[in-house]
Amino acid sequence: xxxxxxxxxxxxxxxxxxxxxxxxxxxxxxxxxxxxxxxxxxxxxxxxxxxxxxxxxxxxxxxxxxxxxxxxxxxxxxxxxxxxxxxxxxxxxxxxxxxxxxxxxxxxxxxxxxxxxxxxxxxxxxxxxxxxxxxxxxxxxxxxxxxxxxxxxxxxxxxxxxxxxxxxxxxxxxxxxxxxxxxxxxxxxxxxxxxxxxxxxxxxxxxxxxxxxxxxxxxxxxxxxxxxxxxxxxxxxxxxxxxxxxxxxxxxxxxxxxxxxxxxxxxxxxxxxxxxxxxxxxxxxxxxxxxxxxxxxxxxxxxxxxxxxxxxxxxxxxxxxxxxxxxxxxxxxxxxxxxxxxxxxxxxxxxxxxxxxxxxxxxxxxxxxxxxxxxxxxxxxxxxxxxxxxxxxxxxxxxxxxxxxxxxxxxxxxxxxxxxxxxxxxxxxxxxxxx
Length: 435
Hints:
alpha/beta, Amidase signature (AS) enzymes, D-Maltodextrin-Binding Protein, domain 2, 3 domains, eleven-stranded mixed beta sheet, 14 helices, 37% helix, 13% strand
């Protein structure tokens, strides 16, 4: 862009042409309205030609999940209850991206209220398989090359799973490192803003553009601002974690992960140990369900009581379960969540990164196919950064991912480790067939 070899308008028009070509078969967009993006791209053309634009995403199209406020586009959150709602402002993270020069041509499909009930999006590599639920539109839009970057959210596995199923890189940063202002709230202690791309380098770029920084954010300032690779020493200490639900993973997925671990262990710059998580992690899925359902029953009282006919049965059931959870049970659940986070911190006292599966296998069949149980929500509970790497191929030639997990506020280290492993040939991307 800065060299003048490519203009924002040219890139945007290529993306628009790709949407025109493939959207009818993928349905990644809740709304695609590129005219405002065209005006932004034309302005950026002029600024780049004049040398006055200094942003780090000059004219880069970004898909925005339809739970983020956008000033010029509606925000309907996957629900007919909110059809036609326009908030009139940008979520803070959207504003950060625009300040850096990104253009937003549309809003990507989300599951209903970013929970479980899926939207119409299809997996770009098999229309008979799910793309994942909550951040499905963002993952499918990036995978099918409609946009190079997209925003998602994760409260359980809503970014890692779609990224795994669609064969892209997905990154859930540490809790709170990317601001959540102006975004649909489902839970106070689990909602994360997340990033999707087709390269680790682009995840790093997005992260730097979106995150908070400075001394007003002390944990971030102490552990992320100014981080340098010199803080890590070689060999990298990798913990292979099968996880509390390892027996639910498909045998082919188990074998692929163990093969990858064996390859890494043979490298002199990697010291790999198999690690069993403490016993309390075995209760993580039940704990997540308790916290999740209780918070949904609180934040969605109006939708539940005033518009039950417009809410999915799946969502109604979660709210009803949450209404049975007492305030005392919820507070105890939050205390258990904090203890899990501290227990995971102790694992990282001895290891730099955790290696495990992103998902139990390839995408389930059917648009409403239920995910197999995996470790995604464990790392979400613990507020740890996690990344899905598109490295595996399963039945039918479909992709699925390996997941790397880092220490809380160890986001730069996790990104650097992923890039280092890739440079060494230990992260070899799944090569998709042409769409």
